[in-house]
Structures are given as structure tokens and as C-alpha cells.
Amino acid sequence: MISRRTVVKALGLAGAAAVSPARSENQAIHRRPIPSSGETIPVIGLGTSRTFNVEPNSERMAPLLAVVETFFEQGGTLIDSSPMYGRAEAVSGELVARARQADGVFAATKVWTDGAAAGVEQMDRSFRLMGVDVMDLMQIHNLRDWRAHMKTLRAWKESGKIRYIGITTSRASQYEAFAAVMRSEPLDFVQLNYSMGEREAEEVLLPLAADKGISTLINRPYMRGVLFSRVKDKPIPGWAGEIGVNSWGQFFLKFILAHPAVTCIIPATSKVHHMRDNMAGGYGAIPDPGLRRRMLAYVNA
After folding, report:
1. Region 69-88: what's the mean pLDDT?
2. Whole-angstrom Cα distance, residue 194 to residue 106?
3. Of 46, 108, 158, 276, whose CB is crowded by the most CB atoms within 10 A?
4. pLDDT value at residue 3
């Protein structure tokens, strides 16, 4: 598979300065509201799947600390994790503490087990690992035993132990069941896969989220690198400069942000220059519908 790094080098854009557009000091990252509360969050967050599954005291922590510090410096707040991601929750908590940004983080994780009692035990552990007294967002991962966990999440939200509740998926095969839960449960967030190469969510899930007033977190924005393989022989079109795009990563992110039902995208990375590039996708102009269609046609040509 052609990696993001390979595509960037081929374009002669290696390095943070080359892949991040210039912006004035008073320019801020776009923020979008959480409909259930009116609170706003930055449109680019940080995922931790695979990238943060490292030994907490290993040499691999240093570059990840630089990633987290860059994320906060560029205006990010939402960090999303899960017990499914190995050591990612513990690493996230440790990195946020080292970055001294505990008060500025929007902590999100998931419950991923069977049975209400096991869910309570797992979620309590997530609080400890991520170093929070109140979890901003607790999600039911891939709908696993969602009926049992939803009762706990409702009670914990009512008591103030968590602020928002949600469900997640990353595969279209779950969409029918996922939509049924969206219709029946009072959710604050849904997390789902959506990108230029995986657009099935446009059919039901994204319109339903907009109709129900549910915030959306978008995972797999690059399809784990597959999208970079698809454009390995294509130059970035000159007209992409109209919206401040000068890398394929920014191109893919801005396409997603142009969908009105999208709240926040959560790409994962372990590299600072990719972190800067991801965050740059949250600044500047957002494509209008016409430009969005043009972007899609160019990539698929």
C-alpha cells in the first residue's frame, strides 16, 4: 500500500512547513456545535487506534508527546480512545498529563464488553487510565451489548459522571442496526466511518443525525491510508488552493467537513508533521457543494 508519507514526498511536500498552509495569528480552527447542548468543539480531533498502543514508559512515548502537544497548540481538544485499542487509554492519559493540558481536553472513550456489571468495571478503569473524574463522552463501541450499557450511560449522565453519550461503528454492515438505535435512543453523539472512499453514511446515517440533532465523530477519514494510494499518480489540482489546500490529507478532510452533518473528524497519527497537516484541514475555507462535487470527480477520474 502507498503510504501518506510516500505521497507527500512524491509531491515534494515533506516537512511540517510544506504541508501546513500559512495562517494569521488570529485565525482560529473551525468549531461546530453539539446540538444537545450548544457547546462547540473543534472540527479536527485526535484518534488513538493503533497509533497510541505502545508501552507507556517506552521510547515511543516521546514522539507521541510531540504529537499531543502539537494537537493542543493547533487548537485541538477532543481525544478519542477505547479499551479495544490496547494501551491507548493509558497512553492518552499520560500524554495529556505530560502536556499539562488536562483542563483543555475533551476526553472521549468507549465501553466494549458484555454485561452491565462488566461495563461498569471497564468504564471505571477507563476513567482512571485517562485521568479524568468526569468523562466528556462515553460511547458504546460497535453497538456491543448496547441495551445493557445504555441504561448505565443514561444513569451516569444524569448523575454528572459523564457529559455526553453515544454509539460507534466503523463498518457499513452495521448501519441498519445503528440507524435503529439512533431512532430509538436519546443520543448526543454517533461515531461512524465516512470518507471520499466510504460514502454509504450519506444515504441514511448522516441525514438522520442532522434530523435528530446528534453530533457526529468521523473515523477512517483516509480509509487507513487507502485514499493516498488512489491518488499516488495525481497532482493536487491547482484550484484546491481556493480553499487553502496544499496536501492530499487536507483535501480529504475538507471534503468531509463540507458535509453539513459532520461535527468533528478524528484521524489518528503518530507523526508530528501529519498532526500539523491534519489540523490544517480544520482552518480556512470549507468547500461549497459545487466544489465538493468537483473534488470527488477529480479523485474518481
Report:
1. 97
2. 22
3. 108
4. 53
- Is residue 19 situated within a structural domain? no
189-231 residue pLDDT tens: 999 999 999 999 999 999 999 999 999 999 999 999 999 999 9
Q: HSE-up of 75 (CA within 13 Å, CB side)?
A: 21
- All 3 cell numbers of residue 272? 508530528
Residue 257: CATH number of its domain: 3.20.20.100
Residue with cell 507521541: 64
Cβ atoms 258, 287 nearer than 8 A:
yes
Q: Is residue 247 part of a domain?
A: yes
- Least confident range of 19-28, 183-192, 194-203, 265-274: 19-28
CA-wise closest residue to 270 among 28, 75, 71: 71
Amino acid at site 148: A
Statement: the pTM of the whole predicted model exceeds 0.90? yes
Q: In which band, very low, low, confident or very high, does the pLDDT at 57 lie, cut at 50, 70 and 90?
A: confident
152: which 3 cell numbers? 448505565
- Number of compact structural domains in the chain: 1
Q: For cell 481536553, name the residue.
A: 105
At residue 273's C-alpha, the angle toward residues 13 and 18, to 5°, is 30
The DSSP code for 163 is E
Positive or negative, the CA dihedral 225, 230, 235, 236 is: negative
Q: Quick count: other Cβ atoms within 10 Å of Cβ 131?
A: 16
Distance CA 275, CA 251 (A): 15
CB neighbours of residue 182 within 10 Å: 20
Residue 281 DSSP symbol:
T
Does the pLDDT value for residue 7 go beyond 60? no
Distance, in Å, from the CA atom of 90 to the CA atom of 7, rounded to the nearest integer, reads 32
